[in-house]
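Inverse folding, one chain.
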């Protein structure tokens, strides 16, 4: 019995020593790594927002005016309200990091403020332009400014990432709403046309 206990202690001791060396090696590797990070959060967010704005605008333009009030169920945002929700969020995220929107987006009924397609598309575009312009002027120091109210390691870079992530989420929702109403996203229509043209091209 004693022999088994000593063997167990020996195994545990060897494992602890091995693990200690591994973790020490990892710590040394991290401390000696002076390579600058290659991920540019500002650049990536700006690219994402440009693409998101283009797709939201195209999709909103393809949805007929009479479908802007469509909603999948009572109490759920309508198509038009989703677009205004995106507008409100774009302003809200930028305000969190110090921006001052020229639009009063803080009213609780902002999402229901209009059902006019042209106005909604215009407001959504304006909010994307505002966000992109503000982010484009941010310095590296701005990006790294702490936002501890959102977490011990959070900074303004995390907030602009969340802005883009939020828009991506609702783009997916908007695509689903559009397709339920018989609207194919314009970029998909374009891709289908290109594929058809390629398939029908004379063979050399």
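Residues assigned per position:
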């Amino acid at each position: 019995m004693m022999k088994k206990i000593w063997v167990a202690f020996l195994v545990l001791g060897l494992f602890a020593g091995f693990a200690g060396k591994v973790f020490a090696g990892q710590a040394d590797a991290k401390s000696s790594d002076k390579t600058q990070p290659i991920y540019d959060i500002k650049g990536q967010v700006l690219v994402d927002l440009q693409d998101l704005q283009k797709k939201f605008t195209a999709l909103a333009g393809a949805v007929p005016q009479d479908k802007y009030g469509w909603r999948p169920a009572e109490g759920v945002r309508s198509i038009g309200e989703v677009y205004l929700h995106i507008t409100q969020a774009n302003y809200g995220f930028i305000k969190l990091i110090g921006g001052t929107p020229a639009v009063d987006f803080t009213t609780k009924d902002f999402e229901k403020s209009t059902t006019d397609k042209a106005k909604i598309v215009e407001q959504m575009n304006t909010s994307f332009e505002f966000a992109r312009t503000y982010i484009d002027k941010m310095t590296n120091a701005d990006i790294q400014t702490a936002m501890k109210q959102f977490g011990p390691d959070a900074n303004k870079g995390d907030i602009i990432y969340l802005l883009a992530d939020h828009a991506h989420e609702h783009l997916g929702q908007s695509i689903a709403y559009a397709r339920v109403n018989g609207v194919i996203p314009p970029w998909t229509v374009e891709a289908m046309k290109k594929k058809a043209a390629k398939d029908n091209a004379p063979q050399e």
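Confidence is low (pLDDT under 50) at residues 1-24. The two ends are 83 Å apart (CA to CA).
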